[in-house]
Amino acid sequence: MPSLSTLLSLFIDGASYGMILFLIASGLTVTLGIMRIINLAHCGFAMIGGYAALALTSWMGLPLLVALPIAILLTMAIGFLLEQTIYRVVYRTHEFGQILMTLGLTYLMVATINLIFGSLMQNIPVPEPLSGVWLAGGLTVSKYRIFLVAVSAGVALLLWTTFEWTTFGTRLRAAIDNPRMARACGIDVGRLLSIAFAAGCGLAALGGVLGAQMLPLEPFYALKYLVLVLMVVTVGGLGSLKGSLLAALALGLIDTFGRYFLPELGAFVIYVTVFAFLLIRPRGLFQNA
What we know:
mainly alpha
């Protein structure tokens, strides 16, 4: 039987892993669940953000906390340009067309990253103030993982406030639910969708940068972690940020504890859990009407 300190360490590791999944999945919740776009290229934007931060820290020598907002803004700019061009075509296609087009874009992202950065796995160095551990009795806690949990919780609160209590959130829901009526009320639907899509890309980039210690950067990043992110959104319920947060935390904890107690099964535990859950609740924890 593991000690209490071991269980607490596993809990913190699982929570931080889950919060990184939430950061990436929250952007997909916006595009897939709220904007109702099947965007299989979403993890590609997390990869772009991660590699942008890697270039800024490794090639230009910038500290991570300085490179982070630059990488996020760069990813948002790329997302905005793609939304204005390629995704305007994607919007008009049926679901199968959206899958094919965004999956093709994912492979284009993979090939581009491989051409520029090579095929080796990369890590972004942790800033000195966030490196190391805290010792509390027999418990050893990573400073960086505590930082991840705090940042992710702050982002979750900001998103919830934005979509539930601001004019932007109200206008966005109106623009998606009834675009013709929204335009008649003077809402610029196209502009709102562009901003929401770019924000989703920025959230993915934030997760890609901060989570590089747990989800290392590699050219196939956009495909390798896509299933995990889709599971978070599906289990949480399409369009539900609250559901994505709870699902990400649950899946992070299940995966971490599963790998510790059942190492021979590896990642099999999380897939079986998700399969069993969706048999019972196929619409997920919450469903955004």
